[in-house]
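Table S2 (continued). Query chain:
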Amino acid sequence: MEYLVIAFFFGLATALIGRAKGSSFFIWFLIGAVTLLIGLVAVVLYRVDKDEPERQCPNCHKALKLYVQVCPRCGTDLYLPDPAAVRHPGVR
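Corresponding output:
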């Protein structure tokens, strides 16, 4: 019974940190509840999705992260854009 309480709180802490970084609450909750301390360390070291550079799809103009290779809206293959066309949300 004690293990379940500890697992729940590790899962909750991991999920809250993961959600703050822009990821799925539920997936990080499962990772934190199953792996406990390892999951918590993993979410702390995980990248912040909100701060990733963005660009626009040349076809449908949807804002996409720079690491996306195919536009999920229109299916256009995306190549590295001109550095002037990249938006850095974390940098002012």
